[in-house]
Amino acid sequence: MIFDVSDEAYDRFMGRxxxxxxxxxxxxxxxxxxxxxxxxxAGTGALAAELARRGEAAAAEPSxxxxxxxxxxxxxxxxxxxxxxxxxxxxxxxxxALAQLVVSFVADAAAAVREMRxxxxxxxxxxxxxxxxxxxxxxxxxxxxRQAAMPDGPAPRPLPYRSEGELxxxxxxxxxxxxATAQLEVQSEYASFDEFWEAxxxxxxxxxxxLRELEPERQAAARAxxxxxxxxxxGRFVLRGRACAARGVV
Length: 250
Prior knowledge:
It is a single chain. The protein is of the alpha/beta class. It is about 40% helix and about 25% strand. It contains eight helices and seven strands. Strand 4 (about 95-100), helix 4 and strand 5 form a beta-alpha-beta unit.
């Protein structure tokens, strides 16, 4: 899946979580100072920026808009517009390859992990993380909004690779060794419900793509349902995200 949305819109909705997740994920993957690493499916660059702080970083991103944003934001990065299943680097180019919040959206996850393994040197690390099923607290109010606006609509398609076991099996299938898994938790603060709702309206992704297509009456019903599901917050509130992560050694 290629997200056709501005980098600013993505950052207001999901980037606020991925930026907080990146340091914890890089720590879990064991990324050390001075290593050469690649962020696969880099999006707007939350993880790539963290990897660049630790060493020499590269980034693969299939979305032309996000790839352009990466080059603009991080001119020192080696950015390639490419899918995870066809990484444009030679074998054994990196000490580690990481994919944050990506593997559920690629066309062929097994092929993507094989490519990540290919571009990592012997003894290097391949690591994946995704939000756990029901791990994002923002998903609950958005489900309530969808049900209120489209009570007879189809249920959202469940995404794969949302558990530690699934990620571990994916790495094992690519002949990676010394497998390990973990849960990583982050949180984001919102100044108001309006900030939450406007971020959801601006984003295009599996949780929100349907929102902007609603006529005004249904959109108002969706907004009211989300507000109620959040407990009718008056002022600031915090939502949490819980990710599953897995790593393996080449």
